[in-house]
Specification:
The structure is a homodimer. By secondary structure, chain A is an alpha/beta fold. The first copy, chain A, has 17 helices and 33 strands. Chains A and B meet through helix 1, helix 3, helix 8, strand 24 and strand 25 of A and helix 1, helix 3, helix 8, strand 24 and strand 25 of B. Chains A, B: Its cofactor is FAD.
Chain lengths: 547, 547
């Protein structure tokens, strides 16, 4: 007898589950109920469609219900909400928009793929019609209509996450005035503050006004009022991008186990009811680094989880390995990426990781247009297990994030990164690739060949406790240096080592960390108690650390 | 007492060893003898310097002897050849160009980093001065002089390897007529022939004349004569790019063990004499896939081996893991990359791997300028261990090669690639990244969910043994199709399945393999004995397979 598979929610995870199910089982009856008006579309492309970087919205509509019927023999019902799950009778109750009738539909296996709701902050005036979200194709159309009707000129984006930054870039392309309001210390809260500083600079360089550590108190017709000082910011359109929350109400109503955030699932995506699966942004899955359940609202995991749920229903011995939260974001001319956890996030979990910051060029430095990538890598003391990687730069960031994400998922340590044989030709990389550089510096630290101090640990006050030695050239020194620093260029250090006192703790530094490391090796072998400044002055300056 | 370290040969491996040695040991005496006129330069950049893509040759000179003295306290002697190694007395005998005197220099540890010689094919006329090589800065200067003196207009490149293709691209930028003569069936012999076809097309599209399966019989002043048919090709400059051979004569003279190609070393780069190390292009190291010693003449491994030899001398418990031969090459608007072995190379080793070919877009297909990447992945039957990856396309190739190279070095299987969480935003990738696609298709094959036939296995003759079903649209079918094919578009297949005979072996295909896979699933579940054409018609057409 043919299995009856019902899927609640189309788009990413749901349609992946549906089509995989069909490929595995020609005899199943597969039905998808989608609350919205599209079966499958690319929500990640929406900010780019707004500005017409993606020229035609139709490009975002990946497939229609007719396509799914014809090619997959899958029935997709749009504008149809599942209002109740009757677990006793294994039925769902559905209602199509504009119709009163409730239909009951049998299932043998049910897959929930309902995604998330945008969080609507409780701000006075938030319910006006010039306050919008930018997540769905319907949102996009609503914004287009609003733009035609009201001809806004200034947009305030509430929230500083990925969608916010993508929206800001595309709105600036359209010549809007753009403000971003972020309640935290920096945009993209999963990142460390120092890495986000480069994004702040890039946003400002492109005319985006940034309001950090602040919130919107009130939304008026043509401006918003800031909470901290009552300042008015022009805004005749407001985009809410303050995060998302898993749609769990239907699951809760059905008595399925729900965690702190999302629906609880086993490693093969089964919920607490063995005939009901859940996938995508609405579920809690294991984070491979923090080892705790978490919600990862990303397209890649959603797609793979949908596929995996279908595999499990078809009897395959599969299990979901968990997430490391690999993300990437274009911010004007910069790319920023993350895999695993930031140092701040690790500390919140009570961990005290080691970490290093390097600034290698994205390809051979002698080949035109080499751009530095700032890579901050956190790893476990003792083992060197990679816990988190953050990278920002103009080119080659996505490659290094993906290589390091792969290394993390393979359980590699920083010691393994030294050995990695990566592709090298001048237009693409270096004989010692940026990833190898991460490996060299991290491994030196892990093995105790090297001691460092981080930019965040130095200040005008505590610098005076060190003998500070700047080993750059006199010309570089003249452009600015740390307080109390004396200048002993690396090439002169051996000859002039008698000028400094080996009884005082010594801090050496250069521009990006390499010459500082050389100085560390020279001085430590001469009995100095010495540390190098991790990532050099560039890390201090880029990280926005005031000294 | 301070150790005396002598290094023969600067540039990549030698200078990496020298500088690492100094960082680890301030007290050592470190001396480098370099036969050529430069201590350290970027030979990989030379083709690009020729055309002034790299504007200034000085950019290629990474560091001078003065720099090494000042910063590293290393003595570098240029134009100085080591003519003999006296292992009994632990001395090297050196001779500086233009001087008669032989100096004897003591060593405690000796590191050989002599690199390779260009192979000079025995061709009549090869010793004329318009016949050059393009490997060193001196070569570059000689070519510049030749161009000024003789104003050549047509260049013939003998050999079709990486340097040949890079030279061809840069010479075309300079408006030279360019011919490439390759004795094998295709350029870049480490690749499979089908993958190289895209390069042939790109070379031709850019005006490069290709002569395959042929050699040069005779070099005249303004033309060369081809071996196969005596044809004359205009060439008033000839570049020899017919490969390299390790410089082993000094090692042989010293009685060190030399293998079939290069100097034999232990896993920590020690030669058969425990006080002599050898690194870089001149040594044989273990190939991680073929498990046999081989010479890998690449910058990355040379640098890491140099570093590792110094580590071992300093007493660190290191060992070299071996190579997988990760390479990348720009060929005009295309990039081609390889990690591990081609299918042909695996077969030559007596292996019968499984493999799949996919053509996913390099980023989200709905985002502008998405370009397909052709990825051919070979893996071990049973285990799924990845044995070789080849990729070619206009963008995103280096990223996928590096991710897959990392996966290979981590010992991942194709099953692991399904799970990889890689970065996704529209400008960078897809929710199902190209690497995941490799994983999905390979795993389906490995698990037996799927049967395929390769383009190389079909011909006009044997196609008649199959019932051939083209599941593309009628419009696509009308643009050309396989012989004997009937057209049953995928959306009609279930309804029209009675039109085909399930007692006859059936071959299904589409444009890139996906719809063919769907058809496979539909038909196999209805009792058909069916195979899908791997990679679809695109693999046939791109692979230059004539049907």
């Amino acid at each position: 007898m043919s299995k009856k598979i019902v899927i609640i929610g189309g788009v990413g995870g749901g349609m992946s589950a549906a089509t995989r199910m069909r490929r595995l089982d020609e005899s199943a009856t597969i039905t998808v109920f989608e609350k919205g008006p599209y079966a499958s579309y690319a929500n990640c492309g929406i900010p780019y469609a707004l500005s017409k970087v993606i020229r035609d919205d139709a490009a975002l509509v990946l497939h229609t219900p007719e396509y799914f019927k014809e090619v997959f023999n899958i029935d997709v019902y749009l504008n149809t909400e599942v209002v109740e799950i009757d677990r006793i009778n294994e039925q769902v109750c559905t209602r199509t928009a504009g119709e009163a009738e409730i239909r009951r539909v049998d299932y043998d296996k049910l897959i929930l793929s309902q995604g998330t709701d945008a969080i609507r902050p409780q701000i006075t005036g938030v319910d006006q019609n010039h306050v919008v979200t930018l997540r769905t194709l319907s949102d996009l159309q609503a914004i287009r209509t609003l733009m035609l009707q009201r001809c806004p000129t200034d947009v305030c984006i509430i929230g500083g996450g990925y969608i916010s930054l993508e929206a800001a870039e595309n709105l600036r392309k359209m010549k809007f005035g753009v403000s971003i309001v972020e309640q935290g210390t920096h945009v993209l809260p999963p990142l460390d503050a120092d890495i986000a500083q480069a994004l702040h600079a890039e946003l400002k360089r492109n005319g985006v006004r940034l309001f950090l550590n602040d919130t919107v108190r009130r939304i008026e017709k043509s401006y918003v009022v800031m909470a901290r000082n009552g300042r008015e910011i022009p805004a005749d359109m407001v985009i809410l991008a303050a995060g998302v929350t898993p749609k769990t109400s239907l699951a809760k109503l059905a008595g399925l186990e729900v965690g702190k955030q999302g629906v609880k699932v086993e490693s093969h995506m089964e919920t607490s009811d063995e005939d009901i699966y859940a996938v995508g942004d609405m579920v809690e899955t294991k984070h491979m680094i923090q080892k705790q359940p978490c919600v990862v609202a990303l397209g890649g995991p959603a797609n793979r989880q949908g596929r995996l749920a279908a595999d499990h229903i078809a009897g395959k011995p599969v299990h979901y390995r968990g997430n490391i939260g690999t993300t990437i974001c274009q911010v004007f001319d910069l790319t920023v990426g993350l895999a695993g956890l930031s140092v701040a996030a690790l500390r919140r979990l009570g961990q005290e990781p080691l970490w290093v910051t390097v600034h290698p060029p994205h390809h051979a430095s002698y080949y035109p247009d080499a751009h530095p990538i700032t890579i901050k890598t956190a790893f476990e003391r003792g083992t060197g297990r990679i816990l988190g990687v953050q990278a920002v730069g103009m080119a080659g960031v996505d490659k290094r994030i993906d290589v390091l994400a792969t290394a993390m998922q393979a359980g590699m340590t920083v010691l393994d990164l030294e050995h990695l044989e990566l592709s090298y030709a001048p237009p693409y990389g270096s004989a010692k690739d940026a990833v190898n550089m991460v490996g060299f510096v991290s491994s030196n630290l892990l093995r105790g060949d090297y001691k460092l101090v981080h930019a965040e640990d130095i200040s005008v006050e505590n610098l005076s406790a060190w003998q500070v030695v700047d080993v750059r050239s006199p010309d570089e020194f003249a452009t600015g240096h740390l307080p109390h620093a004396i200048n002993l260029p690396i090439g002169t250090l051996r000859d002039r080592v008698s000028k400094i006192d080996n009884s005082i703790p010594t801090l050496v530094y250069c521009s990006v960390g390499y010459r500082g490391y050389l100085a560390y090796r020279i001085l430590s072998q001469r009995g100095f108690n010495v540390v190098n400044l991790d990532g050099g002055l560039k890390t201090v300056v880029e990280g926005g650390i005031k000294i």
